[in-house]
């Protein structure tokens, strides 16, 4: 299996959710068992020896591979969600993204200072959502933080919103 095969399975949807956005649809990759397994294997190999204790997935597409990876490496899974979706006490942050403003929340008791955290989402575009999630996780003062994406839209320079030295990995560059 190759990363090119994974990349070829990603469908491009023009003008979604707004005109000018080229949406990268990973459902065409995820529906194929061999490609889903390959994606899971790549994530596992990348993070299996990092000591990760919590995988944080960003709503909603971070909820797909995040729990799969957490199960494989023996970590817990923590969701970051839009307001009103988490039932217990939360903290939140609002941020700008490429086509509007948004707010995300995490349970106040989700992460401890002893944790090593991997924050996972499907795609890095301009970086706004992941940077907000990263800032939320940092408020817990975990031992370490890793950032993971399946797809990185390299032309949008989303990495620039993070400080130098932030541990960021992406499987596919598009």
Automatic annotation (TrEMBL):
<comment type="function">
    <text>Catalyzes a salvage reaction resulting in the formation of AMP, that is energically less costly than de novo synthesis.</text>
</comment>
<dbReference type="GO" id="GO:0016208">
    <property type="term" value="F:AMP binding"/>
</dbReference>
<comment type="similarity">
    <text>Belongs to the purine/pyrimidine phosphoribosyltransferase family.</text>
</comment>
<comment type="pathway">
    <text>Purine metabolism; AMP biosynthesis via salvage pathway; AMP from adenine: step 1/1.</text>
</comment>
<feature type="domain" description="Phosphoribosyltransferase">
    <location>
        <begin position="27"/>
        <end position="145"/>
    </location>
</feature>
<dbReference type="GO" id="GO:0006168">
    <property type="term" value="P:adenine salvage"/>
</dbReference>
<protein>
    <recommendedName>
        <fullName>Adenine phosphoribosyltransferase</fullName>
        <ecNumber>2.4.2.7</ecNumber>
    </recommendedName>
</protein>
<dbReference type="InterPro" id="IPR050054">
    <property type="entry name" value="UPRTase/APRTase"/>
</dbReference>
<dbReference type="GO" id="GO:0003999">
    <property type="term" value="F:adenine phosphoribosyltransferase activity"/>
</dbReference>
<dbReference type="InterPro" id="IPR000836">
    <property type="entry name" value="PRTase_dom"/>
</dbReference>
<keyword id="KW-0328">Glycosyltransferase</keyword>
<dbReference type="GO" id="GO:0005737">
    <property type="term" value="C:cytoplasm"/>
</dbReference>
<dbReference type="Pfam" id="PF00156">
    <property type="entry name" value="Pribosyltran"/>
</dbReference>
<keyword id="KW-0808">Transferase</keyword>
<dbReference type="GO" id="GO:0002055">
    <property type="term" value="F:adenine binding"/>
</dbReference>
<dbReference type="GO" id="GO:0006166">
    <property type="term" value="P:purine ribonucleoside salvage"/>
</dbReference>
<keyword id="KW-0660">Purine salvage</keyword>
<dbReference type="GO" id="GO:0044209">
    <property type="term" value="P:AMP salvage"/>
</dbReference>
<keyword id="KW-0963">Cytoplasm</keyword>
<comment type="subunit">
    <text>Homodimer.</text>
</comment>
<dbReference type="InterPro" id="IPR005764">
    <property type="entry name" value="Ade_phspho_trans"/>
</dbReference>
<dbReference type="InterPro" id="IPR029057">
    <property type="entry name" value="PRTase-like"/>
</dbReference>
């Amino acid at each position: 299996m190759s990363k090119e095969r994974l990349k070829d399975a990603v469908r491009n949807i023009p003008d979604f959710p707004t005109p000018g956005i080229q949406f990268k649809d990973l459902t065409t990759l995820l529906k194929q068992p061999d490609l889903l397994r390959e994606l899971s294997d790549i994530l596992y190999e990348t993070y299996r020896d990092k000591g990760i204790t919590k995988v944080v997935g960003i709503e909603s597409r971070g909820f797909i591979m995040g729990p799969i990876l957490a199960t494989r490496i023996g970590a817990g899974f923590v969701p970051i969600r839009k307001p009103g979706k988490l039932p217990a006490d939360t903290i939140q942050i609002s941020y700008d993204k490429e086509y509007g403003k948004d707010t995300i929340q995490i349970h106040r008791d989700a992460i401890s200072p002893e944790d090593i955290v991997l924050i996972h989402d499907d795609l890095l575009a301009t970086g706004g959502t992941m940077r907000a999630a990263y800032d939320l996780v940092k408020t817990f003062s975990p031992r370490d933080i890793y950032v993971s994406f399946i797809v990185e839209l390299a032309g949008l320079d989303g990495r620039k919103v993070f400080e130098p030295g932030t541990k960021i990995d992406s499987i596919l560059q598009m």
